[in-house]
Amino acid sequence: MSPRGQEGVSPVIATILLVAITVVLTSVLYIVVTNIASDVGRPPPAVAFIRESRTATSTVYTVHLSGQMAYQFLTAKLFVNYTEDASSTVGPLAEGTFGNVTFDDRDASGSLSSGDAFIISTEPAHTYEFMLFWSDDLAQYDRWDT
Fold it and tell me: In terms of CB atoms within 10 Å, which of 4, 53, 107, 114 comes out highest?
């Protein structure tokens, strides 16, 4: 027997509390697992670069894709002679000139869409690699020599 005034919770209330805690924890675990699973295996969007023009001092790529891609998920990188040109890294993507890379949002949509262009300033006798990353996954790549 317990001393007077120190009685515990009744068995019915204890059972209800245990069931409620179990339901809440199971719901939280379900939400966490489904959010993680939805991100796994998601392929990057299909983006195509069409070389619009190439001269000794520049290469222009026009973007082709279905739909639009928000800038905050995109990073553009330029490698010159297999070394990253840090001044030309644009991430998250923004309109303007960054080092040797210029991004032109031709339709002023505020996101990457078909018809937008990347202009790469080049010099003779170099190897260039231009890469577009989407959420850390490679979305598009091209390499050329001048």
Answer: 114
Which CATH entry fits the domain spanning 48-145: 2.60.40.10, 3.40.190.150, 3.40.50.1820, 3.30.70.270? 2.60.40.10
Q: What is the mean pLDDT of residues 103-123?
A: 90
Mean pLDDT of 117-122: 92
* Element containing residue 4 per DSSP (H, E): none
Task: State whether residue 73 is helix, strand or coil.
Answer: helix
The residue behind tokens 């339709």 is: 107
Residue whose pair of structure tokens reads 């959010």 in the numeric block: 35
Provide the token pair at 128. 């260039």
Range 21-50 average pLDDT: 77
